[in-house]
Amino acid sequence: MHSGKPRIGIIGSGAIGGFYGLMLQRAGFDVHFLLRSEYDVVHQHGLTLDSAVHGKLQMKVQSYVDAQDMPTCDWLLVGAKATSNLELAPLIVQVAAPDARVVLLQNGLGVEAQLRPALRDDMHLLGGLCFICVNRQAPGLIRHQALGAVHLGYHSGPSKDGGAAIVEEGAGLFRVAGIDSKAMSNLDQARWQKLVWNVPYNGLSVLLRASTTPLMADPDSRALIQALMAEVVQGALACGHSLPEGYAEQLFRMTEQMPDYWPSMYHDFAQQRPLELQAIYAEPLAQARAAGCRLPNMEMLYQALAFIDRASRHV
Predict the structure, then answer these.
(1) Residue 298 and residue 199 in contact, taking contact as beta carbons nearer than 8 Å
(2) Which of 80, 128, 81 is nearest to 104 (CA)?
(3) Residues marked as catalytic
(4) Helix or strand or coil: residue 210?
(5) Other Cβ atoms closer than 10 A to 72
């Protein structure tokens, strides 16, 4: 790693990558953004963040449409959806400096295991869990409504101490940028914990065409959310992860306090992009089943979403 501040690459500069990339750039880091569809707008006008927490921020950024033009980076934050990991893998390898740290800022389970074989042995792979209400309003325009914390855990790589120092270094970068960040000692457990929110709200937003406020206002959808949350907790336990006492209730109450929010899966559905069903539903269901645990509500939600996904994209 070169001396001075590390060079940070953002792979997939939508809502998540754009938000964290801009916050890091604002803090003085050397940040490079790899974009696809939004390149022309961002190259001309920069990125704009409209944040209820940090105010309005518009910055010119170092943007690229081709990974070959990017300098190699010490840290790579992958903000693209997990559905595109395999096609992104060669680009990630191409822009990774020796000993690079790759952080998957993605939802779901098994995303690191899927990507690991495509990376070099000298690369460190981390998972990052984003607790944030953020979405893309238009090309180059990101709206941030609430929250923002990133929890990091080490997945694999050449680290001698189980990745503890690298995770702490990563959390330190986010903290310098004014973002709450902490180390998770067990990445699998942390990912199951995040599913307690993602499984009900992402899926039901698509199935019922409803954002969080109406979902929390109706007795039937509230009951569905609670049943799904309880199943995720049960699935985690079957896989050897005992989640903190009262965790699901805490998330439920937190969502009641949140501004009205359309989860990311709804935005994917509305724009006819593939839904992240493998990482958020299929993989946890498979792991629970292998541990002898059936999760019928979650299974039914997954089957309904798979139908909706294929029908909306005419697959």
Answers:
(1) yes
(2) 128
(3) 194
(4) coil
(5) 15
